[in-house]
Structure formats: structure tokens, C-alpha cells
Design brief:
7 helices, 155 residues
């Protein structure tokens, strides 16, 4: 959206209105912000860090409000940062799996978790919380899991 910046000079309201009509200039606000950040990026980041250190409660409350207002945006950012996939790709994987866990084939009460190989980073599938924790405790070790299966079959 475009924002009108009134011309400088003049103290009289009547004159200011005349100057605005004669010298109307508009700027693209997004472009203005981008250019400002390019020029003063490090200074802006330092100010943001300083504010966050002084006001941790305000920053935390603002983040919670923003997350509650648009949870998909934050889930998308989290998935992209952690696993390199978008929310759209996650939803596609979920649809391919039929919305169920890749191990126990049960519907999950909460959102499915992305299971990935911790060495290569390759995504293996989507798991419910219990199956994800099970693999985590087994440290993705096939021998441990096979031994667990043998134990369960003996008893």
C-alpha cells in the first residue's frame, strides 16, 4: 500500500494543505522499509535485541499473540527452519499417509510429527507422538527395536 508523506515546510494548516495538493508525492511503504533496513540493518537489529533484553515479558506476550493470530505462518516457519519443508509439503505428506501415523496407523489426536534421520537429515515420514518418542528413546537403532520386538514376543 502507498503512504502519503506530506511535504516539509510551512507551519500554517492552510498552507500545508495547499502544498500537499501541489506537491503530492507517494512512496511504496514496503520499498521504503526495505531500503531503510538495507542501510541501517545492523543498527535496527541491535535496537531489537536491546529492547528484547529489557522487555522479555512484553516480547514473549507479543510472540504468543502473533502465534495465536496466525498459527499456520509460525508452523510453516518452524517446519522450514527445522526440516527444510513448507507447510504445504507437510500437508501433502499428511494426505499421502491418510492422516495417520506411519508406524501404528492410528489417527493422532494432535498434529503428526516429522520423523527424520538425524545423521542424513532425510525425512522418513510423519509419526504420532508416542511412536516418535519410541524411536527417540531407541535412538533410531534397529537392533534395539528388533530386540524389543523379540522381548515382547517372548512374554
Amino acid at each position: 500500500s502507498e503512504v502519503l508523506f506530506p511535504p516539509k515546510g510551512g507551519t500554517c494548516k492552510a498552507c500545508l494543505h495547499e502544498k500537499q495538493a501541489a506537491y503530492r508525492v507517494t512512496y511504496n511503504r514496503r520499498e521504503y522499509d526495505r531500503n531503510r533496513y538495507i542501510k541501517k540493518g545492523e543498527q535496527i537489529r541491535a535496537q531489537v535485541r536491546q529492547y528484547a533484553q529489557k522487555n522479555p515479558d512484553k516480547v514473549s506476550a507479543a510472540k504468543k499473540r502473533a502465534k495465536a493470530k496466525n498459527p499456520d505462518k509460525y508452523l510453516d516457519m518452524d517446519l522450514l527452519w527445522r526440516y527444510g519443508i513448507s507447510l504445504e509439503e507437510f500437508k501433502t505428506m499428511e494426505a499421502i499417509q491418510g492422516g495417520v501415523c506411519a508406524i501404528c496407523h492410528q489417527l493422532s489426536l494432535s498434529r503428526l510429527h516429522v520423523d527424520h534421520d538425524h545423521v542424513s537429515g532425510r525425512i522418513r515420514g510423519l509419526l504420532c507422538h508416542q511412536c516418535n518418542v519410541m524411536l527417540g528413546y531407541a535412538k533410531d537403532n534397529v537392533l534395539t527395536l528388533e530386540s524389543s520386538i523379540a522381548y515382547l514376543q517372548r512374554t
